[in-house]
Amino acid sequence: MIFLVQIPSFLIFLYVLYKLSRDDYVLIRKNISQEMIFDAGFLTVLIGFLAPRILYFILVVPDSIKTINFMLSSYLIAASTFLYFMSRYKKFPTYRIYDFFTLSFLIALPFGLFVSAFFLENVLQFLVFASSFIYLVLSFLFMLFLYPRLMRNDLKEGSITIFFFILFSLITYAFLIMEKGMSLSNLVRETHIPSILILLISIFLLIKQSRR
Fold it and tell me: d(Cα 212, Cα 207) in Å, to the nearest integer?
């Protein structure tokens, strides 16, 4: 299952990242080559994929907690953290790189979720199918409305990433409510710490960005 889902999704991610960064004038002006972007993409995906699993192994996190959304949230935190420090170290335009990586991930995400749903059952399968459709619609909306504004400098760099993080957190909790029910005790017991962190980080970045 891992190879079936992850490898095609990874290839989609790299292809979109290539198309977005190929002729970007900001990257060209800063002498950031396609090879550097591809290296960053490969390392970011690798760290995002491995870091949560190593941490969960050390902390002995039970399998019942490691749902698809839980793992995706953990992946985003690990990958985003690594990408931030690498962008600073490589002197990349951090917020612009974030937006390109976010769009690439968003476009690859529906395929990964759609294929993953075939390995699930009952309500969970329906919810993952539904989430893949929602992210597919979001990818079209982001590329149709937000990406052109970013290219015209009508949208601040980093905005696409912030919007995605906020929507991802809200979608994750919406499906958690539908899966577990509206009971507050269920939500407390199934607390989605990675999604909470993503939402809080997004709000912090949104406030910080508004002051730039």
Answer: 9
CA dist., res. 74 & res. 72, Å (int): 5
Radius of gyration over alpha carbons of the chain, in Å? Answer: 17
Tens of pLDDT, residue by residue over 14-25, are 999 999 999 899
The total number of structural domains in the chain stands at 1
> What one-letter code names the amino acid at 166?
I
Q: Compute the distance between CA of residue 7 and CA of residue 199 in angstroms, rounded to an integer.
A: 28
Question: Which pair of tokens denotes residue 107?
Answer: 């476009």
The domain of 179 spans 2-210
196: tokens are: 């909470």
Give Cα 164 distance to the centre of its chain.
Answer: 8
Comparison of pLDDT for 140 and 187, the residue scoring more: 140
What is the distance in angstroms between the CA of the first residue and the CA of the last residue of the chain? Answer: 44
